Amino acid sequence: MLTKRHLAVLRAALQFFDEEMIPHGQDAMQYYFNAPPAEELKPGEVRELRDILLECELRYACCDLTASRLISQELSASVEDPLNMAISQAGQVATILLTARH
Question: The whole model's pTM is what?
Answer without folding.
Answer: 0.77
